[in-house]
Write a structure and sequence with these properties.
nucleus, SAM-dependent_MTases_sf, alpha/beta, tRNA processing, seven-stranded mixed sheet, binds S-adenosylmethionine, six-stranded antiparallel sheet, Rossmann fold, single chain, tRNA_Gua_MeTrfase_euk, GMP Synthetase, Chain A, domain 3
Length: 569
């Protein structure tokens, strides 16, 4: 006998098992079939399945709300309904033929399938396990009768399905109201849901009486759906892969005891499923490049939108917020280049809450800051680590432009002592808070003055530990501040060995062909001296062709003991 033919003939009598019939959905929503699920593509896509294709939004600056429903896609699938106990084994056997879409489990759970073991026993697949007077295959009514007979004084403990009879029906969830009656909800989440598409539209609904799992009359204890690859969605039975056919064939040989069913199901994927880029690609016009990323500062996502994105800035921000919740609570965009003294950014809140006070954890240290009033750049975290790694526990560090303290506080964990300064009173307020927050108040002293006055004061004060490292992180201007070191030890004798010449780490930008050479030249000019050994590090490209650099060198003796160039008041 030809097994394929036999299988087909047998399945033809069971509507549940025949997949050659096209799927018919009577959903209230009008669905546009965008592409037949036979077309070859990998994984779900917004361009496939049922549902209207999201249209790029018109050029509306103020449009900020997203109609999330337009991202709901429905896919027709075939599935094998199998006993739960055999599911893992069958999943292994059918590997390669299952759906295998990202973030979607191949195994869909049937709601209410975890029944009392006592009931499962009654429905055991092994005919020998039934006593002679028991029917192995029970109709829903017989099941109910049997359960009622065994119902005892302990009430509903053993028979949870009977308990449902006396309980008020639970309020149906929204998705159930939307669905037509021919579907049975089996798995749902805010990301996707799987429904079994019943072809028995007029089947009597026993679910209220004997439990959801009896609906359809074919229940035999806990079951699961193994979702088959999308290419089998509308495949006729004889076109199914050998592994699936073999399963069905062997099972079918058992006649009415067969436990495997080939069923139609519907996979609905919601807005939450799609990734940020997929959503933005669908929302933005084709000629607009999808913004690729953002900087995260605590709960804030900091976008750097281009001109072409501005008409869609609120939509982009909403997608960024939706896709990165709960970590991200606020989405901002920089409205202007940083040009003020305090290096703070002009930010526009595009989505989420409007608080720009946040907490950042960097290398295990907590920093509180208000992005509206102080400077912060998370992209410098690696550079800060590199710099601090060069410090030792005997170092005394002087951070001239400390901001809220990312270098000063990290250094304090390692070094002997730190002097931190900033011109911005808000930054000083936050650095003080952060010092306390990280329990480093014994090791850092904070100053609020101009960098020139600070360096002058700190090097001329006898109360201060001798400085061994000076950090100058104000890339726009720091090199021009270097002249302050000219004659810093002018009041000491040139042969005073107790004078420690500090190592200076100065940051700067360069757009030159040879940025290292260019920056070195600027340092020499500021110090009026040729500094011989300068260690240069490229920190990062801040714009095309513009490097941020860090130059580290020992302050030349000739500079420190030379004549001061300017008088600091
Ligand atoms: C680029 S930020 C660096 C802050 C910190 N080092 C960091 O990595 O986050 C430069 C800092 O220098 C401060 N600043 C600007 N001009 C200054 C000056 N003349 N004297 C002292 N601090 C100044 C700004 O307020 C700002 O906090």
């Amino acid at each position: 006998m030809n097994p394929t033919f036999s299988l087909q003939t047998r399945l033809a009598f069971s509507p549940h098992r025949l997949l050659c019939k096209p799927f018919s959905f009577s959903s209230s929503k009008t669905l546009t079939v965008v592409a037949c699920s036979n077309s070859l593509h990998h994984g779900p896509s917004l361009r496939h399945g049922h549902g209207s294709v999201p249209e790029p939004v018109p050029n509306l600056t103020e449009q900020s709300s997203i109609d999330r429903d337009i991202f709901t896609r429905v896919f027709d699938l075939a599935a094998l309904r199998v006993p739960a106990a055999e599911c893992s084994e069958l999943e292994r056997r059918l590997r390669g033929h299952l759906l295998n879409w990202p973030r979607i489990r191949n195994v869909a759970r049937v709601s209410g399938d975890d029944v009392d073991p006592s009931i499962s026993k009654l429905l055991s697949r092994n005919p020998e396990s039934y006593s002679s007077d028991e029917e192995p295959q029970l109709s829903p009514v017989l099941h109910r009768e049997k359960l009622i007979k065994q119902f005892n004084h302990r009430g509903f403990i053993n028979f949870r399905n009977l308990a449902k009879i006396s309980r008020p029906k639970k309020k149906k969830k929204r998705y159930n109201e939307r669905n037509d009656d021919s579907t049975e909800k089996i798995e749902t989440s805010s990301v996707y849901k799987v429904e079994l598409v019943s072809e028995e539209d007029n089947a009597e609904d026993w679910s209220t009486l004997i439990g959801e799992e009896f609906k359809g009359g074919s229940w035999r204890g806990p079951t699961r759906l193994l979702l088959l690859d999308e290419r089998y969605a509308k495949t006729e039975t004889h076109m199914l892969p050998g592994a699936v056919k073999a399963l069905l064939y062997c099972e079918n040989e058992r006649g009415i005891n067969s436990l495997y069913e080939l069923v139609h199901c519907r996979l609905t994927i919601f807005y939450s499923y799609w990734q940020m880029t997929e959503l933005l690609e669908a929302l933005l016009p084709e000629d607009v490049i999808v913004p690729s990323g953002f900087e995260t500062i605590g709960h804030i996502a900091h976008l750097n939108l281009r001109e072409e994105h501005l008409p869609y800035k609120k939509l982009i921000a909403q997608v960024v917020l939706d896709k990165n919740k709960p970590k991200i609570q606020t989405v901002v965009n920089k409205t202007d280049a940083i040009e003020n003294d305090y290096r703070t950014m002009q930010l526009e809140v595009l989505a989420g809450n409007h608080s720009l006070v946040t907490t950042v954890i960097e290398n295990g240290i907590r920093f509180q800051l208000d992005l509206a009033t102080v400077y912060w750049n998370s992209r410098l975290a690696t550079e800060r680590q590199r710099l601090i790694a060069s410090f030792t526990n005997s170092d005394v560090v002087c951070d001239v432009f400390a901001g809220v303290g990312p270098i000063a506080i990290s250094a304090a964990r390692k070094a002997r002592h730190v002097y931190a300064n900033d011109l911005n009173p808000n930054a000083v307020e936050y650095i003080e808070r952060n010092i306390v927050l990280n329990k480093l108040d014994r090791k850092i002293e904070v100053f609020n003055m101009d960098g020139r006055r600070f360096v002058n004061a700190i090097f001329s004060s006898p109360q201060i530990f001798p400085i061994t490292q000076v950090v100058m992180n104000l890339p726009n201007d720091a090199a021009e501040f270097l002249d302050i070191f000219k004659g810093i030890f002018r009041n000491r004798s040139n042969d005073d060995d107790s004078c420690i010449l500090p190592k200076i780490h100065v940051y700067g930008f360069s757009k030159a062909q040879n940025p290292e050479f260019d920056f070195h030249e600027r340092i020499n000019m500021a110090l009026c001296e040729t500094v011989r050994e300068v260690e240069m590090n490229r920190v990062r490209l801040v714009a095309p062709g513009k490097w941020m650099l860090c130059a580290s060198f020992n302050l030349p003796r000739a500079v420190a003991f030379g004549k001061p160039l300017i008088k600091v008041v």
